[in-house]
């Protein structure tokens, strides 16, 4: 594993982290306690010091697992979590989750679940349409002064929102979905982060399982799998996207690596910090190994030809999900 400073002013983290949404039930299927422990332990043992979660993942379940499993290794990790992404039964973002009083309430709850007295990187999960971003960031800055958080992050925000936030207090990281199958960050937020010295963290870097080959048909989903309602995993869209994943796999095999490793190397080449999630310890170790790849330019040029930006079929999520994203 290799390590780099997150943005210009953040902590030094592993260039590939671990996205802990997979630890929560009801998103990508359930994990046993033993599986969650083995996967999370494998991540840290592989040198993944950057562990990312959120209070809404399994209604706090992911945070509780991390707090329990890593209780004796707190000093080995840079711990990131998020608040303000909760939504109602119709997928509509709840209002008021960016208000200063809610920042304090959510932070206290996360600290308790995680079993720690500080969070290294604390993200606003989604922009609260009822609260000026300046007010939210101001409240987060107060928590930095109090020593309860180390750095401020924002998730799925527009360049305009990032610049407004940065005017109040330095932002360390922006987290957005980014992969070979989701290229929207190239429309502006990547450039804004580079201009402001903000680190860019890529969630779902493997196309929510498509790129890694875990999904071949709808039969691969459990009954409660979130992807059942995602347009990219339905009908002809899924068939098209599986064919793209097969093209990636063929190119990766020619290099003697897995397709997930090639996709992660593509993101690292762009300066992103990918945080792949998985339910299997073996996959964690394989993902970590992507940090050591040194592939020739020609491989990435072929990759861009095989999977051009417009190739993926279907929007990245349904309308209710996309409505919660600040563009």
Automatic annotation (TrEMBL):
InterPro entries: Aldo-Keto_reductase (IPR050791), NAD(P)_OxRdtase_dom_sf (IPR036812), NADP_OxRdtase_dom (IPR023210). The keyword Oxidoreductase applies. Residues 16-306 form the NADP-dependent oxidoreductase domain. The keyword Protease does not apply. Keywords: Oxidoreductase. This is Aldo/keto reductase. It comes from Nonomuraea antimicrobica.
